[in-house]
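Each field is listed here:
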Amino acid sequence: MSLSQSAFSTQSASEHQTPWAIEFHDVHKIFDNNEHVLKGINLQVPWGETVSLVGNSGTGKSILVKMLIGLLQPSKGTIVVAGQDVKGLSEMEWMPLRKRVSMVFQANALFDSMTVYENIAFPLRQHLQMPEPEIKERVAEVLEWVLLPGIEQQYPQELSGGMRKRVGVARGIVTEPEILLYDEPTAGLDPVSTTVVDEMIRRFQRERGVTSIVITHDLKSAMNVGDRVALLNQGVVWASGTPDELMNEEDTFVRGFFEGYRLAMELLQ
């Protein structure tokens, strides 16, 4: 199937009942050891937008995103995904929502004992129960999308780190999610592979209207892929805005956080 005939569907924001794909309202997370990580997160992500989530280690970025797929529950507050309040949903109630929301994990979460084909086909069999000819076609299509055509019969250990990362992305998009969550998509990659992954994230948004949250410690990547950047600090969204707005922010913490990136960009000019 050619990309122009792609099975991937594009849905504009006007077709949704709410302008927001994701909403966090006063979200707190307190663990059993009384560690209060999130202390009132407020953030709204419009349909079709990519938000880069940045902050120092331990600020709760991954915790926030895991709440969007039901792996963790908030201690307080409201989380709305695709118009649905997800707090307290049962595993059965999560199932239809997980067809609309997918996550690309930092370590790719690929099964080493399975071929690339079996890895990518896994969520299609689990969630959609597609017939095998359609699965074969869909797997081939997403591998074209991530610039890895024809590697279906290889195993993850035979691939480079950048290729494994792209296979993880392929598995994330194969169910045609409306919302895609990335946990450190460029961690450990060389600059060329990082650029390829960044461009894929932008292309999914640009051509397919996918809404994304991207957790990253790579500030260059965060600025490249994000329509907006949200900076977590002290358990809250300390600042949020376009990359240009954050680069010109007067707040002392924000300026300090982005200072290294700013200097690097000046050196490249």
